[in-house]
Amino acid sequence: MRPLTVRRLLWTCGGLTVALLASVVLALKLGAVPISVTDLVVNLGRAAIGRTSQIPTEYRLIIFDLRLPRILLGILVGAALSVSGASFQALLRNPLADPFVLGVSSGAALGSILAMIIAPQLAFVMPLGAFLGAIATIAAVYFLGRREGELDSTTLLLGGIISASFLSAIIMFLMTTLAGRDLRGMVFWLMGDLSTPVPVSLRWILTVGVIAGIGAIYTTAADLNLLLTGEREAIHLGVDATRVKLVVYISASLLTALAVSASGAIGYVGLLVPHAVRLLFGSDYRLLIPASALGGAIAIVLADTLARTVVAPTELPVGAMTAMAGAPVFIYLLRRGMR
Amino acid sequence: MSASNISTHAFDGRMQSPKPVRNERLNVEQASYAYSATAQSAPTFTLGATSFQAHERELVAILGPNASGKSTLLQLISGTIAPLSGRVELDGEETSRLDTRTRAQRIAMVHQESPVVYPALAGDFVLQGRYPYGRALRFATKQDIEIARNALAQVGADHLAGRTIGELSGGEKQRVILARALAQQPRLILLDEPTLHLDIGAQVDLLERLRQLAQENRYAVVVVTHELALAAEFADRVVLLQHGRCLRVGTPATVYQRELLEQVFEAPLDVETGPAGRPRVNLRARRGEDAE
User: Does this complex have an ipTM over 0.90?
Assistant: First the structure.
Protein backbone atom coordinates (compact mmCIF):
# COMPACT_ATOMS: atom_id res chain seq x y z
CA MET A 1 0.00 0.00 0.00
CA ARG A 2 1.48 3.34 -1.02
CA PRO A 3 -1.21 5.99 -0.70
CA LEU A 4 -0.38 9.50 -1.85
CA THR A 5 0.75 11.76 0.97
CA VAL A 6 0.77 15.55 1.05
CA ARG A 7 4.53 15.40 1.48
CA ARG A 8 5.06 13.40 -1.71
CA LEU A 9 2.68 15.70 -3.59
CA LEU A 10 4.59 18.81 -2.49
CA TRP A 11 8.03 17.35 -3.17
CA THR A 12 7.07 16.23 -6.66
CA CYS A 13 5.50 19.56 -7.57
CA GLY A 14 8.45 21.43 -6.06
CA GLY A 15 10.87 19.44 -8.16
CA LEU A 16 8.85 20.07 -11.29
CA THR A 17 8.69 23.79 -10.53
CA VAL A 18 12.49 23.89 -10.36
CA ALA A 19 12.63 22.06 -13.70
CA LEU A 20 10.19 24.57 -15.15
CA LEU A 21 12.32 27.50 -13.98
CA ALA A 22 15.38 25.86 -15.53
CA SER A 23 13.61 25.48 -18.86
CA VAL A 24 12.45 29.10 -18.70
CA VAL A 25 16.07 30.21 -18.24
CA LEU A 26 17.08 28.02 -21.16
CA ALA A 27 14.32 29.45 -23.32
CA LEU A 28 15.29 33.02 -22.44
CA LYS A 29 18.90 32.29 -23.27
CA LEU A 30 18.56 30.51 -26.61
CA GLY A 31 17.32 31.99 -29.83
CA ALA A 32 18.42 33.90 -32.92
CA VAL A 33 20.41 36.17 -30.55
CA PRO A 34 21.93 34.06 -27.76
CA ILE A 35 22.16 35.76 -24.37
CA SER A 36 24.68 34.75 -21.72
CA VAL A 37 23.41 33.55 -18.35
CA THR A 38 25.22 36.43 -16.64
CA ASP A 39 23.44 39.05 -18.76
CA LEU A 40 20.15 37.26 -18.17
CA VAL A 41 20.55 37.17 -14.40
CA VAL A 42 21.73 40.77 -14.22
CA ASN A 43 18.87 42.14 -16.30
CA LEU A 44 16.19 39.97 -14.71
CA GLY A 45 17.53 41.18 -11.36
CA ARG A 46 17.28 44.78 -12.49
CA ALA A 47 13.67 44.20 -13.55
CA ALA A 48 12.87 42.49 -10.25
CA ILE A 49 14.05 45.43 -8.14
CA GLY A 50 12.35 47.95 -10.41
CA ARG A 51 15.45 49.44 -12.04
CA THR A 52 14.10 48.99 -15.55
CA SER A 53 15.86 52.13 -16.79
CA GLN A 54 19.25 50.44 -16.37
CA ILE A 55 18.35 47.61 -18.78
CA PRO A 56 19.98 48.06 -22.20
CA THR A 57 17.41 48.57 -24.95
CA GLU A 58 18.35 45.46 -26.94
CA TYR A 59 17.93 43.24 -23.87
CA ARG A 60 14.66 44.91 -22.96
CA LEU A 61 13.39 44.17 -26.43
CA ILE A 62 14.60 40.57 -26.67
CA ILE A 63 14.03 39.39 -23.11
CA PHE A 64 11.03 41.36 -21.93
CA ASP A 65 9.14 42.18 -25.10
CA LEU A 66 9.78 39.08 -27.18
CA ARG A 67 10.87 36.01 -25.24
CA LEU A 68 9.31 36.38 -21.81
CA PRO A 69 5.68 36.99 -22.96
CA ARG A 70 6.01 34.09 -25.35
CA ILE A 71 7.36 31.82 -22.60
CA LEU A 72 4.58 32.82 -20.20
CA LEU A 73 2.04 32.17 -22.91
CA GLY A 74 3.65 28.77 -23.52
CA ILE A 75 3.42 27.94 -19.81
CA LEU A 76 -0.30 28.73 -19.71
CA VAL A 77 -1.04 26.89 -22.94
CA GLY A 78 1.01 23.83 -21.98
CA ALA A 79 -0.59 23.58 -18.55
CA ALA A 80 -4.09 24.03 -20.00
CA LEU A 81 -3.67 21.41 -22.73
CA SER A 82 -2.06 18.80 -20.46
CA VAL A 83 -4.65 19.10 -17.71
CA SER A 84 -7.44 19.03 -20.24
CA GLY A 85 -5.94 15.88 -21.80
CA ALA A 86 -5.59 14.19 -18.41
CA SER A 87 -9.22 15.09 -17.62
CA PHE A 88 -10.60 13.71 -20.87
CA GLN A 89 -8.60 10.52 -20.26
CA ALA A 90 -10.36 10.05 -16.91
CA LEU A 91 -13.86 10.99 -18.09
CA LEU A 92 -13.72 8.80 -21.17
CA ARG A 93 -11.66 6.11 -19.43
CA ASN A 94 -9.35 6.12 -22.41
CA PRO A 95 -5.59 6.65 -22.23
CA LEU A 96 -5.56 7.93 -25.82
CA ALA A 97 -7.95 10.80 -25.24
CA ASP A 98 -6.52 14.26 -25.89
CA PRO A 99 -8.23 17.51 -26.94
CA PHE A 100 -6.51 17.34 -30.33
CA VAL A 101 -7.25 13.67 -31.03
CA LEU A 102 -10.86 14.08 -29.90
CA GLY A 103 -11.41 16.99 -32.28
CA VAL A 104 -12.07 19.42 -29.41
CA SER A 105 -9.15 21.62 -30.51
CA SER A 106 -10.51 21.80 -34.05
CA GLY A 107 -13.95 22.65 -32.69
CA ALA A 108 -12.42 25.44 -30.62
CA ALA A 109 -10.46 26.67 -33.64
CA LEU A 110 -13.59 26.78 -35.80
CA GLY A 111 -15.50 28.48 -33.00
CA SER A 112 -12.91 31.21 -32.64
CA ILE A 113 -12.66 31.78 -36.40
CA LEU A 114 -16.43 32.14 -36.64
CA ALA A 115 -16.38 34.52 -33.68
CA MET A 116 -13.69 36.60 -35.35
CA ILE A 117 -15.75 36.82 -38.52
CA ILE A 118 -18.90 37.84 -36.65
CA ALA A 119 -17.42 40.34 -34.17
CA PRO A 120 -13.73 40.98 -34.86
CA GLN A 121 -13.56 44.10 -32.66
CA LEU A 122 -14.18 42.38 -29.30
CA ALA A 123 -11.26 40.78 -27.46
CA PHE A 124 -13.20 38.22 -25.46
CA VAL A 125 -15.22 37.01 -28.40
CA MET A 126 -12.47 34.69 -29.65
CA PRO A 127 -12.12 32.62 -26.46
CA LEU A 128 -15.90 32.63 -26.10
CA GLY A 129 -16.36 31.27 -29.62
CA ALA A 130 -13.61 28.75 -28.98
CA PHE A 131 -15.33 27.62 -25.78
CA LEU A 132 -18.68 27.10 -27.51
CA GLY A 133 -16.95 25.24 -30.33
CA ALA A 134 -15.10 23.00 -27.86
CA ILE A 135 -18.23 22.20 -25.83
CA ALA A 136 -20.25 21.40 -28.95
CA THR A 137 -17.51 19.13 -30.30
CA ILE A 138 -16.97 17.12 -27.12
CA ALA A 139 -20.73 16.65 -26.79
CA ALA A 140 -20.97 15.42 -30.39
CA VAL A 141 -17.98 13.09 -30.03
CA TYR A 142 -19.33 11.75 -26.74
CA PHE A 143 -22.64 10.80 -28.34
CA LEU A 144 -20.90 9.40 -31.43
CA GLY A 145 -18.81 7.22 -29.13
CA ARG A 146 -21.72 5.64 -27.32
CA ARG A 147 -22.90 2.20 -28.21
CA GLU A 148 -25.87 0.74 -26.36
CA GLY A 149 -25.37 3.20 -23.54
CA GLU A 150 -21.70 2.36 -23.01
CA LEU A 151 -18.74 4.39 -24.21
CA ASP A 152 -16.91 2.38 -26.81
CA SER A 153 -13.22 3.24 -26.96
CA THR A 154 -12.66 2.59 -30.67
CA THR A 155 -15.86 4.30 -31.80
CA LEU A 156 -15.03 7.26 -29.60
CA LEU A 157 -11.56 7.76 -31.07
CA LEU A 158 -12.83 7.31 -34.60
CA GLY A 159 -15.60 9.81 -33.88
CA GLY A 160 -12.99 12.27 -32.64
CA ILE A 161 -10.66 11.83 -35.58
CA ILE A 162 -13.50 12.15 -38.08
CA SER A 163 -14.85 15.25 -36.34
CA ALA A 164 -11.38 16.77 -36.38
CA SER A 165 -10.93 16.31 -40.12
CA PHE A 166 -14.49 17.48 -40.85
CA LEU A 167 -13.98 20.64 -38.79
CA SER A 168 -10.55 21.26 -40.35
CA ALA A 169 -12.16 21.08 -43.78
CA ILE A 170 -14.67 23.77 -42.80
CA ILE A 171 -11.83 25.90 -41.42
CA MET A 172 -9.93 25.50 -44.71
CA PHE A 173 -13.05 26.52 -46.62
CA LEU A 174 -13.52 29.61 -44.49
CA MET A 175 -9.86 30.53 -44.74
CA THR A 176 -9.66 30.32 -48.51
CA THR A 177 -12.89 32.24 -49.03
CA LEU A 178 -11.90 35.01 -46.63
CA ALA A 179 -9.96 37.44 -48.79
CA GLY A 180 -7.07 39.47 -47.47
CA ARG A 181 -6.05 37.06 -44.73
CA ASP A 182 -2.49 36.18 -43.95
CA LEU A 183 -2.38 32.60 -45.16
CA ARG A 184 0.97 31.68 -43.61
CA GLY A 185 -0.22 33.04 -40.27
CA MET A 186 -3.39 31.00 -40.59
CA VAL A 187 -1.52 27.79 -41.36
CA PHE A 188 0.80 28.40 -38.42
CA TRP A 189 -2.15 29.06 -36.15
CA LEU A 190 -3.85 25.88 -37.30
CA MET A 191 -0.70 23.87 -36.57
CA GLY A 192 -0.35 25.58 -33.22
CA ASP A 193 2.00 28.51 -32.86
CA LEU A 194 3.17 30.87 -30.14
CA SER A 195 4.83 33.54 -32.30
CA THR A 196 1.75 35.75 -32.71
CA PRO A 197 1.62 38.16 -29.76
CA VAL A 198 -1.55 37.96 -27.69
CA PRO A 199 -3.38 41.25 -26.96
CA VAL A 200 -3.09 42.40 -23.35
CA SER A 201 -6.83 42.03 -22.62
CA LEU A 202 -6.72 38.43 -23.81
CA ARG A 203 -3.68 37.74 -21.60
CA TRP A 204 -5.75 38.43 -18.52
CA ILE A 205 -8.67 36.33 -19.68
CA LEU A 206 -6.20 33.55 -20.43
CA THR A 207 -4.35 33.70 -17.10
CA VAL A 208 -7.45 33.84 -14.93
CA GLY A 209 -9.29 31.25 -17.05
CA VAL A 210 -6.47 28.70 -17.01
CA ILE A 211 -5.96 28.99 -13.26
CA ALA A 212 -9.70 28.75 -12.60
CA GLY A 213 -10.11 25.80 -14.97
CA ILE A 214 -7.25 23.80 -13.48
CA GLY A 215 -8.46 24.68 -9.98
CA ALA A 216 -11.98 23.50 -10.71
CA ILE A 217 -10.72 20.22 -12.11
CA TYR A 218 -8.39 19.75 -9.15
CA THR A 219 -11.30 19.88 -6.70
CA THR A 220 -12.57 16.69 -8.34
CA ALA A 221 -9.21 14.88 -8.34
CA ALA A 222 -10.27 12.28 -5.77
CA ASP A 223 -13.51 11.66 -7.70
CA LEU A 224 -11.64 11.21 -10.97
CA ASN A 225 -9.55 8.45 -9.38
CA LEU A 226 -12.76 6.55 -8.70
CA LEU A 227 -14.42 7.37 -12.01
CA LEU A 228 -11.44 5.71 -13.67
CA THR A 229 -12.49 2.38 -12.17
CA GLY A 230 -15.91 2.80 -13.77
CA GLU A 231 -18.86 5.11 -13.37
CA ARG A 232 -21.18 2.62 -11.66
CA GLU A 233 -18.47 1.67 -9.19
CA ALA A 234 -17.76 5.33 -8.49
CA ILE A 235 -21.41 6.05 -7.76
CA HIS A 236 -21.59 3.14 -5.32
CA LEU A 237 -18.49 4.50 -3.59
CA GLY A 238 -20.26 7.82 -3.06
CA VAL A 239 -19.14 9.91 -6.05
CA ASP A 240 -21.69 12.38 -7.37
CA ALA A 241 -20.81 11.35 -10.92
CA THR A 242 -23.19 13.72 -12.71
CA ARG A 243 -21.81 16.79 -10.96
CA VAL A 244 -18.18 15.72 -11.38
CA LYS A 245 -18.60 14.99 -15.07
CA LEU A 246 -20.31 18.31 -15.68
CA VAL A 247 -17.60 20.28 -13.84
CA VAL A 248 -14.78 18.48 -15.58
CA TYR A 249 -16.27 18.50 -19.10
CA ILE A 250 -16.90 22.23 -18.89
CA SER A 251 -13.53 23.04 -17.32
CA ALA A 252 -11.56 20.84 -19.71
CA SER A 253 -13.37 22.38 -22.69
CA LEU A 254 -12.65 25.84 -21.29
CA LEU A 255 -8.96 25.02 -20.94
CA THR A 256 -8.78 23.71 -24.50
CA ALA A 257 -10.64 26.75 -25.79
CA LEU A 258 -8.35 29.21 -24.01
CA ALA A 259 -5.25 27.43 -25.27
CA VAL A 260 -6.56 27.29 -28.84
CA SER A 261 -7.68 30.91 -28.96
CA ALA A 262 -4.20 31.99 -27.83
CA SER A 263 -2.02 29.65 -29.82
CA GLY A 264 -4.05 27.53 -32.24
CA ALA A 265 -4.38 23.79 -32.19
CA ILE A 266 -1.18 22.46 -30.62
CA GLY A 267 -1.53 18.70 -30.71
CA TYR A 268 -0.51 15.75 -28.59
CA VAL A 269 0.65 17.67 -25.51
CA GLY A 270 -2.44 16.48 -23.65
CA LEU A 271 -1.55 12.92 -24.58
CA LEU A 272 2.23 12.91 -24.13
CA VAL A 273 2.55 14.80 -20.87
CA PRO A 274 0.00 12.94 -18.69
CA HIS A 275 1.38 9.67 -20.02
CA ALA A 276 4.95 10.59 -19.08
CA VAL A 277 3.75 11.80 -15.67
CA ARG A 278 1.95 8.48 -15.07
CA LEU A 279 5.09 6.53 -15.89
CA LEU A 280 7.16 8.68 -13.53
CA PHE A 281 4.80 9.34 -10.63
CA GLY A 282 1.82 6.96 -10.93
CA SER A 283 -1.76 7.59 -11.96
CA ASP A 284 -3.25 9.22 -8.85
CA TYR A 285 -5.09 12.29 -10.16
CA ARG A 286 -4.35 14.27 -7.02
CA LEU A 287 -0.73 14.26 -8.16
CA LEU A 288 -1.32 13.77 -11.88
CA ILE A 289 -3.16 17.07 -12.38
CA PRO A 290 -0.60 19.47 -10.87
CA ALA A 291 2.29 17.42 -12.23
CA SER A 292 0.73 17.45 -15.71
CA ALA A 293 0.21 21.22 -15.51
CA LEU A 294 3.88 21.77 -14.67
CA GLY A 295 5.05 19.08 -17.08
CA GLY A 296 2.92 20.54 -19.88
CA ALA A 297 4.39 23.96 -19.25
CA ILE A 298 7.91 22.52 -19.40
CA ALA A 299 7.09 20.58 -22.58
CA ILE A 300 5.74 23.61 -24.44
CA VAL A 301 8.50 25.94 -23.30
CA LEU A 302 11.14 23.47 -24.48
CA ALA A 303 9.29 22.57 -27.71
CA ASP A 304 8.88 26.25 -28.56
CA THR A 305 12.55 26.91 -27.85
CA LEU A 306 13.37 24.12 -30.29
CA ALA A 307 10.90 25.51 -32.82
CA ARG A 308 12.62 28.90 -32.59
CA THR A 309 16.17 27.57 -32.84
CA VAL A 310 16.45 24.45 -35.04
CA VAL A 311 16.20 26.33 -38.33
CA ALA A 312 16.93 29.84 -36.96
CA PRO A 313 16.37 32.55 -38.02
CA THR A 314 13.32 30.88 -39.60
CA GLU A 315 10.77 29.58 -37.09
CA LEU A 316 8.66 26.43 -37.07
CA PRO A 317 5.19 26.32 -35.54
CA VAL A 318 5.46 24.70 -32.10
CA GLY A 319 2.60 22.35 -33.06
CA ALA A 320 4.90 20.80 -35.65
CA MET A 321 7.40 19.96 -32.92
CA THR A 322 4.79 18.43 -30.59
CA ALA A 323 3.22 16.45 -33.43
CA MET A 324 6.60 15.08 -34.49
CA ALA A 325 7.16 13.83 -30.96
CA GLY A 326 3.53 12.99 -30.17
CA ALA A 327 2.30 11.05 -33.17
CA PRO A 328 4.84 8.19 -32.77
CA VAL A 329 3.98 7.95 -29.05
CA PHE A 330 0.28 7.81 -29.89
CA ILE A 331 0.86 4.94 -32.29
CA TYR A 332 3.06 3.19 -29.73
CA LEU A 333 0.35 3.48 -27.06
CA LEU A 334 -2.32 2.34 -29.47
CA ARG A 335 -0.33 -0.74 -30.45
CA ARG A 336 0.76 -1.70 -26.98
CA GLY A 337 -2.49 -1.01 -25.17
CA MET A 338 -1.88 0.27 -21.70
CA ARG A 339 0.38 -1.40 -19.18
CA MET B 1 -28.18 6.38 12.48
CA SER B 2 -28.70 4.94 15.95
CA ALA B 3 -26.01 4.18 18.50
CA SER B 4 -26.31 0.44 18.00
CA ASN B 5 -25.05 0.75 14.45
CA ILE B 6 -21.76 2.30 15.41
CA SER B 7 -20.47 -1.10 16.46
CA THR B 8 -20.83 -2.53 12.96
CA HIS B 9 -17.18 -1.72 12.22
CA ALA B 10 -15.52 -4.35 10.14
CA PHE B 11 -12.83 -5.01 12.70
CA ASP B 12 -14.98 -4.92 15.81
CA GLY B 13 -15.00 -8.35 17.37
CA ARG B 14 -17.28 -7.63 20.30
CA MET B 15 -20.64 -8.34 18.73
CA GLN B 16 -20.18 -12.07 18.45
CA SER B 17 -22.70 -12.77 21.16
CA PRO B 18 -23.58 -16.43 21.58
CA LYS B 19 -27.22 -15.94 20.63
CA PRO B 20 -27.46 -13.35 17.88
CA VAL B 21 -30.44 -11.05 17.80
CA ARG B 22 -31.50 -10.90 14.18
CA ASN B 23 -32.37 -7.31 13.44
CA GLU B 24 -34.13 -6.72 10.20
CA ARG B 25 -31.85 -4.74 7.93
CA LEU B 26 -33.35 -4.72 4.47
CA ASN B 27 -37.05 -4.60 3.78
CA VAL B 28 -38.23 -4.81 0.19
CA GLU B 29 -41.96 -4.26 0.13
CA GLN B 30 -43.98 -4.64 -3.05
CA ALA B 31 -41.21 -2.90 -5.01
CA SER B 32 -41.66 -2.75 -8.76
CA TYR B 33 -39.92 -1.08 -11.69
CA ALA B 34 -40.38 -0.55 -15.41
CA TYR B 35 -37.89 0.35 -18.12
CA SER B 36 -39.06 2.17 -21.20
CA ALA B 37 -37.20 3.81 -24.03
CA THR B 38 -38.89 7.18 -23.49
CA ALA B 39 -41.21 8.53 -20.81
CA GLN B 40 -44.27 8.02 -23.03
CA SER B 41 -43.59 4.66 -24.67
CA ALA B 42 -44.68 1.30 -23.30
CA PRO B 43 -42.20 -0.32 -20.93
CA THR B 44 -39.76 -2.75 -22.53
CA PHE B 45 -39.14 -4.55 -19.27
CA THR B 46 -41.07 -4.62 -16.03
CA LEU B 47 -40.19 -6.02 -12.65
CA GLY B 48 -43.40 -6.97 -10.87
CA ALA B 49 -44.01 -6.25 -7.22
CA THR B 50 -41.40 -8.06 -5.15
CA SER B 51 -41.23 -8.42 -1.38
CA PHE B 52 -38.64 -9.97 0.90
CA GLN B 53 -36.54 -9.18 3.94
CA ALA B 54 -32.90 -9.64 4.78
CA HIS B 55 -31.76 -9.64 8.40
CA GLU B 56 -28.30 -8.97 9.66
CA ARG B 57 -25.98 -11.98 9.40
CA GLU B 58 -28.16 -13.34 6.62
CA LEU B 59 -27.23 -14.23 3.06
CA VAL B 60 -30.03 -13.83 0.55
CA ALA B 61 -29.67 -15.10 -3.01
CA ILE B 62 -31.61 -13.55 -5.87
CA LEU B 63 -31.90 -16.41 -8.28
CA GLY B 64 -33.11 -16.61 -11.83
CA PRO B 65 -32.10 -17.14 -15.45
CA ASN B 66 -30.83 -14.31 -17.67
CA ALA B 67 -33.24 -11.40 -18.20
CA SER B 68 -35.33 -12.37 -15.20
CA GLY B 69 -34.90 -8.99 -13.51
CA LYS B 70 -32.17 -9.91 -11.03
CA SER B 71 -29.93 -6.94 -11.76
CA THR B 72 -32.88 -4.54 -11.80
CA LEU B 73 -33.90 -5.78 -8.36
CA LEU B 74 -30.33 -5.32 -7.16
CA GLN B 75 -30.27 -1.74 -8.46
CA LEU B 76 -33.56 -1.05 -6.67
CA ILE B 77 -32.06 -2.36 -3.45
CA SER B 78 -28.89 -0.31 -3.92
CA GLY B 79 -31.00 2.82 -4.24
CA THR B 80 -29.51 4.00 -7.54
CA ILE B 81 -33.00 3.71 -9.01
CA ALA B 82 -36.23 4.39 -7.15
CA PRO B 83 -39.05 1.85 -7.27
CA LEU B 84 -42.09 2.69 -9.38
CA SER B 85 -44.28 1.52 -6.53
CA GLY B 86 -43.58 0.02 -3.15
CA ARG B 87 -40.58 0.65 -0.91
CA VAL B 88 -37.02 -0.50 -0.39
CA GLU B 89 -35.83 0.28 3.13
CA LEU B 90 -32.53 -0.24 4.90
CA ASP B 91 -32.94 0.06 8.67
CA GLY B 92 -36.16 1.94 8.07
CA GLU B 93 -34.83 4.46 5.53
CA GLU B 94 -35.64 4.35 1.84
CA THR B 95 -32.39 3.59 0.02
CA SER B 96 -33.22 5.69 -3.05
CA ARG B 97 -33.69 8.79 -0.87
CA LEU B 98 -30.28 8.61 0.78
CA ASP B 99 -27.71 10.99 -0.67
CA THR B 100 -24.87 9.36 -2.60
CA ARG B 101 -22.34 9.72 0.19
CA THR B 102 -24.53 8.35 3.00
CA ARG B 103 -25.66 5.53 0.77
CA ALA B 104 -22.03 4.55 0.13
CA GLN B 105 -21.43 4.46 3.88
CA ARG B 106 -24.26 1.96 4.32
CA ILE B 107 -24.46 -0.08 1.13
CA ALA B 108 -21.48 -1.58 -0.68
CA MET B 109 -21.82 -3.03 -4.15
CA VAL B 110 -19.52 -5.59 -5.74
CA HIS B 111 -19.95 -5.47 -9.49
CA GLN B 112 -19.01 -7.96 -12.09
CA GLU B 113 -15.37 -7.28 -12.67
CA SER B 114 -14.68 -4.20 -14.76
CA PRO B 115 -11.53 -3.52 -16.76
CA VAL B 116 -8.75 -1.57 -15.07
CA VAL B 117 -7.58 1.35 -17.21
CA TYR B 118 -4.46 2.27 -15.27
CA PRO B 119 -2.41 0.04 -12.98
CA ALA B 120 -3.16 0.47 -9.28
CA LEU B 121 -1.83 -1.35 -6.25
CA ALA B 122 -4.37 -3.65 -4.62
CA GLY B 123 -3.89 -1.86 -1.30
CA ASP B 124 -4.59 1.56 -2.81
CA PHE B 125 -7.62 0.09 -4.57
CA VAL B 126 -9.03 -1.09 -1.22
CA LEU B 127 -8.45 2.40 0.19
CA GLN B 128 -11.01 3.67 -2.34
CA GLY B 129 -13.59 2.13 -0.02
CA ARG B 130 -12.81 4.92 2.44
CA TYR B 131 -13.90 7.58 -0.05
CA PRO B 132 -17.41 8.13 1.40
CA TYR B 133 -15.87 8.98 4.77
CA GLY B 134 -13.24 11.45 3.53
CA ARG B 135 -13.26 15.13 2.66
CA ALA B 136 -12.00 17.10 -0.35
CA LEU B 137 -8.88 15.42 -1.74
CA ARG B 138 -9.21 12.49 0.69
CA PHE B 139 -5.65 11.90 1.72
CA ALA B 140 -5.67 8.58 3.60
CA THR B 141 -5.58 8.88 7.37
CA LYS B 142 -3.88 6.34 9.62
CA GLN B 143 -7.32 5.02 10.48
CA ASP B 144 -8.21 4.61 6.80
CA ILE B 145 -5.05 2.60 6.20
CA GLU B 146 -5.76 0.48 9.27
CA ILE B 147 -9.29 -0.24 8.07
CA ALA B 148 -8.09 -1.09 4.57
CA ARG B 149 -5.45 -3.46 6.01
CA ASN B 150 -8.08 -5.14 8.15
CA ALA B 151 -10.41 -5.49 5.19
CA LEU B 152 -7.67 -7.19 3.17
CA ALA B 153 -6.92 -9.47 6.12
CA GLN B 154 -10.58 -10.42 6.45
CA VAL B 155 -10.66 -11.72 2.89
CA GLY B 156 -7.28 -13.42 3.35
CA ALA B 157 -5.51 -11.11 0.93
CA ASP B 158 -2.99 -9.25 3.13
CA HIS B 159 -0.17 -10.53 0.98
CA LEU B 160 -1.70 -8.96 -2.15
CA ALA B 161 -1.57 -5.35 -0.90
CA GLY B 162 1.58 -4.47 -2.84
CA ARG B 163 0.64 -6.20 -6.10
CA THR B 164 -0.97 -4.38 -9.01
CA ILE B 165 -4.56 -5.31 -9.82
CA GLY B 166 -3.66 -6.35 -13.35
CA GLU B 167 -1.41 -9.20 -12.24
CA LEU B 168 -3.95 -10.84 -9.90
CA SER B 169 -5.89 -14.00 -10.78
CA GLY B 170 -9.68 -13.83 -11.09
CA GLY B 171 -10.23 -15.15 -7.58
CA GLU B 172 -7.63 -12.84 -6.05
CA LYS B 173 -9.09 -9.84 -7.85
CA GLN B 174 -12.58 -10.70 -6.59
CA ARG B 175 -11.24 -10.87 -3.03
CA VAL B 176 -9.60 -7.46 -3.38
CA ILE B 177 -12.84 -5.98 -4.74
CA LEU B 178 -14.69 -7.54 -1.79
CA ALA B 179 -12.11 -6.02 0.57
CA ARG B 180 -12.86 -2.59 -0.90
CA ALA B 181 -16.53 -3.18 -0.11
CA LEU B 182 -15.63 -4.13 3.48
CA ALA B 183 -13.56 -0.96 3.82
CA GLN B 184 -16.79 0.97 3.25
CA GLN B 185 -17.98 -0.50 6.57
CA PRO B 186 -21.45 -1.02 5.17
CA ARG B 187 -24.53 -2.56 6.73
CA LEU B 188 -25.56 -4.21 3.50
CA ILE B 189 -23.35 -5.81 0.87
CA LEU B 190 -24.72 -6.42 -2.60
CA LEU B 191 -22.98 -8.64 -5.12
CA ASP B 192 -23.85 -8.87 -8.81
CA GLU B 193 -22.94 -12.29 -10.21
CA PRO B 194 -19.72 -12.39 -8.19
CA THR B 195 -18.88 -15.94 -9.22
CA LEU B 196 -19.17 -15.38 -12.96
CA HIS B 197 -15.50 -15.58 -13.90
CA LEU B 198 -14.29 -17.72 -11.03
CA ASP B 199 -13.37 -21.38 -11.08
CA ILE B 200 -15.31 -23.65 -8.78
CA GLY B 201 -12.84 -23.57 -5.88
CA ALA B 202 -12.82 -19.77 -5.82
CA GLN B 203 -16.65 -19.72 -6.01
CA VAL B 204 -17.02 -21.89 -2.90
CA ASP B 205 -14.30 -19.93 -1.16
CA LEU B 206 -16.03 -16.61 -1.88
CA LEU B 207 -19.45 -17.71 -0.65
CA GLU B 208 -18.06 -19.31 2.49
CA ARG B 209 -16.20 -16.10 3.19
CA LEU B 210 -19.34 -14.05 2.65
CA ARG B 211 -21.30 -16.17 5.13
CA GLN B 212 -18.54 -15.85 7.67
CA LEU B 213 -18.23 -12.07 7.18
CA ALA B 214 -21.98 -11.65 7.51
CA GLN B 215 -21.77 -13.44 10.87
CA GLU B 216 -18.76 -11.54 12.17
CA ASN B 217 -19.65 -8.05 10.99
CA ARG B 218 -23.45 -8.30 11.12
CA TYR B 219 -23.89 -7.50 7.45
CA ALA B 220 -26.90 -8.43 5.47
CA VAL B 221 -25.63 -9.89 2.18
CA VAL B 222 -27.62 -10.06 -1.05
CA VAL B 223 -26.11 -12.02 -3.93
CA VAL B 224 -27.46 -12.07 -7.46
CA THR B 225 -26.63 -15.36 -9.14
CA HIS B 226 -27.85 -17.99 -11.52
CA GLU B 227 -25.82 -20.72 -9.84
CA LEU B 228 -28.50 -23.00 -8.43
CA ALA B 229 -26.09 -25.26 -6.58
CA LEU B 230 -24.23 -22.44 -4.84
CA ALA B 231 -27.42 -20.69 -3.74
CA ALA B 232 -28.79 -23.98 -2.37
CA GLU B 233 -25.67 -24.56 -0.33
CA PHE B 234 -25.01 -21.08 1.04
CA ALA B 235 -28.16 -18.95 1.03
CA ASP B 236 -30.39 -18.48 4.07
CA ARG B 237 -33.15 -17.29 1.81
CA VAL B 238 -33.79 -17.43 -1.92
CA VAL B 239 -35.75 -15.00 -4.08
CA LEU B 240 -36.69 -16.75 -7.32
CA LEU B 241 -37.34 -14.54 -10.35
CA GLN B 242 -38.53 -15.30 -13.87
CA HIS B 243 -39.38 -12.83 -16.66
CA GLY B 244 -39.52 -9.97 -14.17
CA ARG B 245 -41.90 -11.75 -11.80
CA CYS B 246 -41.08 -12.82 -8.29
CA LEU B 247 -42.22 -16.44 -8.12
CA ARG B 248 -41.13 -17.59 -4.70
CA VAL B 249 -39.36 -16.34 -1.57
CA GLY B 250 -38.16 -18.72 1.11
CA THR B 251 -35.46 -21.04 2.34
CA PRO B 252 -33.75 -23.10 -0.34
CA ALA B 253 -35.63 -26.16 0.92
CA THR B 254 -39.01 -24.56 0.24
CA VAL B 255 -38.10 -22.89 -3.06
CA TYR B 256 -36.19 -25.76 -4.65
CA GLN B 257 -39.00 -27.85 -6.08
CA ARG B 258 -38.18 -29.84 -9.11
CA GLU B 259 -41.06 -28.84 -11.40
CA LEU B 260 -40.71 -25.18 -10.49
CA LEU B 261 -36.97 -25.03 -11.13
CA GLU B 262 -37.23 -27.04 -14.35
CA GLN B 263 -39.84 -24.63 -15.63
CA VAL B 264 -37.89 -21.50 -14.60
CA PHE B 265 -34.48 -22.62 -15.85
CA GLU B 266 -35.81 -24.60 -18.81
CA ALA B 267 -33.55 -27.55 -18.08
CA PRO B 268 -34.21 -31.05 -16.76
CA LEU B 269 -33.07 -31.17 -13.16
CA ASP B 270 -33.00 -33.50 -10.20
CA VAL B 271 -33.56 -32.10 -6.74
CA GLU B 272 -32.76 -34.14 -3.65
CA THR B 273 -32.24 -33.30 0.00
CA GLY B 274 -28.70 -33.33 1.32
CA PRO B 275 -27.57 -34.39 4.80
CA ALA B 276 -27.86 -30.87 6.28
CA GLY B 277 -31.43 -30.52 5.03
CA ARG B 278 -30.33 -28.30 2.15
CA PRO B 279 -31.47 -29.23 -1.33
CA ARG B 280 -29.02 -30.59 -3.91
CA VAL B 281 -29.55 -29.86 -7.58
CA ASN B 282 -28.21 -32.06 -10.35
CA LEU B 283 -28.39 -31.59 -14.07
CA ARG B 284 -29.95 -34.36 -16.04
CA ALA B 285 -29.01 -34.77 -19.70
CA ARG B 286 -31.91 -34.49 -22.14
CA ARG B 287 -32.34 -37.63 -24.21
CA GLY B 288 -29.40 -37.91 -26.63
CA GLU B 289 -27.99 -34.42 -25.99
CA ASP B 290 -25.87 -32.77 -23.35
CA ALA B 291 -27.66 -30.40 -21.09
CA GLU B 292 -25.80 -27.23 -20.35
Answer: no
